[in-house]
Design the sequence.
């Protein structure tokens, strides 16, 4: 009798944990295939430290073949899920197509940058969801400071040293905190003409920093950022983005060459193509993480709307039933849902313990604000300053599924040695567009084209740089080839 075949799509927090748990539970009594565009699991919470030059890029990546024994890795991006035919169709990195048949399917495709219908944002902003974007941001910020040092025009010099971050949630707050420290270090080592200092703006339509977290964390983060000179503007966002800067919703125009888009995330567009009911773009699943009406399909992580059994919502006595409430799109939930999904898949195959619904206990949150500063509330206990910094780094070391010694070594070296402020030139602006469903993969010249993608004009050759750089400081070359599953801005997003 042939062994059952389980296909897991996506190797983020949910997919990686599902694959690891399932391999342990089945003990080679099932074939497990993991479909993912890259051969690594990315530990997203430490990505701002990669952009700031604290951690080397490989420190936040964990090898899938090296850590998932008993799991077959297939490199590729899922293009379509045929529920009736029990098959996942995909494209590999060289443009070839294939199909994976399954007996059980776990959809853990995660999330991508959230877009808003703001003019110019898709053309002039960059997100922060993948390693290429972090490497690009580090190079870009370093380049702007270095160009400003030799710029004769005072206004352009100030614009190059003005950096705008939109979104004061977890990611945007950490990006602003870490990158502000980086630019200060660069300027201290090589002062700018006229004593100019880098200017960072953090914008959000919410009333406070970290609006989705405990108010005490919010106050701590806001106080630290403002104390460092970050211009934190709540109730303010971008009305229009241009090549020369951003027009704010309060009417002010800010001259800048850097716009970092951290307004949040949306589920990977693949879930829409599954053809099952959605809740705000997320695949609806039951408490056991199964797709209703499809006993062989499970969903977990950011792409799945998992019922929150701890906070189910409330309705008035005798009134309508309470509105369904789903767990938020966080790494903590994705990590734990991956384990429950694996346990329930194994149970459905008769290879594990009894199936169980997903329940969670809030462990608190930790936000690294750079240096020894952080804001944390482990198990509801509010902390700030060095104590929060120690808890935050300890939490990340414990949560990392690999590279712990290397990460700790990088932290130690950063504390005692000057940080290297160099451009690597590995990622260009056009290779990390904001409007993409594949932030983990940069565009490449002459890359493969999906069979269903429209024809694109060939990438023109880049002219030799025989003159001074363009006034924008951006690498505004057209992008070669299409981006996978691009979608229009989400008008329902805030």
Sequence:
């Amino acid at each position: 009798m042939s062994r059952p075949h389980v296909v897991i799509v996506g190797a983020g927090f949910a997919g990686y944990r599902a694959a690891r748990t399932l391999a342990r539970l089945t003990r080679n009594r099932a074939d497990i295939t993991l479909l993912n565009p890259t051969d690594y699991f990315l530990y997203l919470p430490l990505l701002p430290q990669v952009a700031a030059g604290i951690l080397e890029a490989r420190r936040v990546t964990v090898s899938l073949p090296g850590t998932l024994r008993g799991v077959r890795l297939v490199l590729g991006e899922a293009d379509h899920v045929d529920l009736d035919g029990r098959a996942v169709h995909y494209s590999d990195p060289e443009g070839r197509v294939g199909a994976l048949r399954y007996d059980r399917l776990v959809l853990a495709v995660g999330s991508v940058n959230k877009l808003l219908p703001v003019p110019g944002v898709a053309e002039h902003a960059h997100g922060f969801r993948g390693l290429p974007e972090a490497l690009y941001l580090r190079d870009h910020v370093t380049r702007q400071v270095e160009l400003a040092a030799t710029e004769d025009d005072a206004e352009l010099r100030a614009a190059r040293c003005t950096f705008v971050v939109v979104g004061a949630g977890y990611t945007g707050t950490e990006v602003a905190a870490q990158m502000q420290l980086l630019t200060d270090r660069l300027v201290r080592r090589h002062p700018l003409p006229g004593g100019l200092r880098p200017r960072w703006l953090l914008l959000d339509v919410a009333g406070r920093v970290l609006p989705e977290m405990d108010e005490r964390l919010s106050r701590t983060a806001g106080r630290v950022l403002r104390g460092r000179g970050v211009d934190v503007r709540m109730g303010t966002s971008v009305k229009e983005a241009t090549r020369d800067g951003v027009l704010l919703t309060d009417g002010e125009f800010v001259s800048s060459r850097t716009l970092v888009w951290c307004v949040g995330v949306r589920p990977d567009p693949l879930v829409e193509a599954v053809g099952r009911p959605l809740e705000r773009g997320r695949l609806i699943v039951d408490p056991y993480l199964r797709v209703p009406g499809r006993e062989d399909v499970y969903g977990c992580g950011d792409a799945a709307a998992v019922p929150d059994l701890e906070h189910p919502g409330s309705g008035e006595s005798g009134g309508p039933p309470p509105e369904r409430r789903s767990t938020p799109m966080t790494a903590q939930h994705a990590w734990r849902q991956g384990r429950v999904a694996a346990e329930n898949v194994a149970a459905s195959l008769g290879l594990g313990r009894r199936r169980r619904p997903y329940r969670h206990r809030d462990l608190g949150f930790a936000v690294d604000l750079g240096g020894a500063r952080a804001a944390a509330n482990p198990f509801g206990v509010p902390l700030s300053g060095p104590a929060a910094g120690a808890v935050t780094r300890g939490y990340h070391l414990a949560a990392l599924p690999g590279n712990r010694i290397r990460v700790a070594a990088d932290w130690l070296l950063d504390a005692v040695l000057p940080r290297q402020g160099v451009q690597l030139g590995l990622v260009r602006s056009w290779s990390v567009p904001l409007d993409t469903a594949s932030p983990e993969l940069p565009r490449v010249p002459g890359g493969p084209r999906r069979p269903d993608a429209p024809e694109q004009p060939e990438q023109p050759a880049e002219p030799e740089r025989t003159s001074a750089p363009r006034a924008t400081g951006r690498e505004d070359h057209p992008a070669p080839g299409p981006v996978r599953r691009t979608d229009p801005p989400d008008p329902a997003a805030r």
Remarks:
- The longest strand covers residues 31-36.
- Residues 170-189 form the longest helix (20 residues).
- The mean pLDDT is 88.
